[in-house]
Amino acid sequence: MPAGGAMRPPVAWKSAEMNRRRAARYAADRRLQIYGMVAIAFALGFLAILIGTLSFTGYRAFTQSMVTVDIDLSAADLDRSNLMDANWRSVFRRAVLADVGELSRSEERDYFSMFTSSAPFLIRDQVIANPALLDGRATFMVPMSDPIDQLAKGLVNTDLPENQRRVNDKQIELFNQLEAKGAVTQPFNWALFLNADSRFPELAGLAGAISGSFWLLLVCFVISFPVGIAAAIYLEEFAPKNRFTDLIEININNLAAVPSVVFGLLGLAVFLGWFGLPRSAPLVGGMVLALMTLPTIIIVTRAALTSVPSSIREAALGIGASKHEMIFHHILPLSMPSIMTGTIIGLAQALGETAPLLLIGMNAFITSPPAGVLEASTALPTQIYIWADSPERGFVARTSAAILVLLGFLFVMNAMAIFLRQRFQRRW
Fold it and tell me: Which residue from 135, 66, 65, 123 is spatially nearest to 89, judged by alpha carbons?
């Protein structure tokens, strides 16, 4: 009852004033929904633009213009006792000249530049791997050089004057001649995944970067996962509640928001400067990314441990379990799905980091995949950075293709996190 004993008049729910208020609230609800839908539409639109742009630019890198070369190796003048040092360049030149007939010296130079400069060595490696090819005719698939690959994919404007394009009229004529014979094909570019980096776009691949990223993430996981869980268990279950532990918690939360380049500078000063660890090695990269991922894993683990109902703790302690038995037999297994989900998301974030890897030198030019964590390597983000900085036209498509591959790995890792969460998550 209001002060003074006066009775409040009853609410007229069907009055014009109440109808106006209801209409205003409903309108506010609809506006909120519209704002949310517009925000989602913006996000999806930008994502579609990103994927569409990358796909439009990068799909060309998933095919490679190849020329079929037929060579009678039984008639070739080769030293079979030393195939590695044989004159494969001469063998290759005679074979491809047979397809076009007589050419002047300058035309021959233009013609041979239509094929990758490593063509003789590619043929040599195939013959060494299969010496039976020496006993007869063999057919080899040789990548065409980057300018001719661009021509085959319709990216060269042949209407421009000859001095304004990378392919001259004679090369166009010879290419058309080879194409008319059916010698030019565009199969799926497996070299993009099987080859390491190269200065020639037609031979460059992601094998070294994918291998380097694997070793790097392995080191990051081996360090950050047990250390992060141990730190979270101590802070959540054993640490006394005082100013010192409060300070530690605040700093862990702050470290999760520190820019990744700061961790790169830390790794550069400590791991390379003080400890003298090898530059460009996945070991150092993994340690730097572990430092960056640790705060995320600690925060996620603490949240997962807290989400387990206290009744489980009390029941375990009530039947005589010690604290460490209660943690390792009950609390940690029950919270592990959430911990794994957070860890995978943290590793996915680490997979896409570029700045800390650049600072420790993982942008070196490496032509073979690393065999271990101490060998010089690169990673997918830094490989993209290297290709994006290359002047050759062929690296434009390869840069977009590499970004699509990186997004594919991130998508798979996030899908794993969602699967683990849906498969093992328990609702209390």
Answer: 123
Beta strands across the sheet bearing 137-143: 137-143, 66-72, 184-185
Over the range 65-87, which residues count as b (16 or more CB within 10 Å of their CB) and which as e?
A: bbbebebebeebebeeeeeeebe
Backbone phi, psi, residue 143, to 5°: -65, 140
User: For 118-146, b where at least 16 C-beta lie within 10 A, e where not — what string?
Assistant: bbbebbbeebeeeeebeeeebebebbbbb
Angstrom distance (rounded) from CA 153 to CA 162? 18
pLDDT tens by residue, 85-121: 888 888 888 888 887 777 888 888 889 999 998 899 9
Q: Which two tokens stand for residue 257?
A: 């928001």
Determine the longest span between alpha carbons in the chain, in angstroms. Answer: 119
DSSP string, 273-297: IIS-PPTT-HHHHHHHHHHHHHHHH
Residue 193: its pLDDT value, please?
92
Helix, strand, or coil (residue 181): coil
Residue 216, C-beta contacts closer than 8 angstroms, at least 6 positions apart: 282, 285, 286, 289, 357, 362, 377, 379
Residues 122 and 235: their CA atoms lie apart, in Å, by 58
Q: Dump pLDDT digits (tens) for 193-215.
A: 998 888 898 999 999 999 999 99
Distance CA 94, CA 420 (A): 59
Chain-wide mean pLDDT for the chain?
A: 88
CA dihedral 248, 253, 255, 257 (to 10 degrees): -170
Which of 261, 413, 255 lies closest to 348 in space, CA to CA? 413
pLDDT in tens, 243-260: 888 899 889 888 888 888
Which structure tokens are listed for 217? 């993430």
Taken in order 284, 286, 292, 297, the sign of the CA dihedral is negative
Q: What does pTM read for this prediction?
A: 0.84
pLDDT of residue 3: 53
Q: Is the pLDDT of residue 6 over 70?
A: no
Condensed to tens digits (0 to 9), the pLDDT of residues 39-50 reads 999 999 999 999
Q: Tell me the residue length of the chain.
A: 428
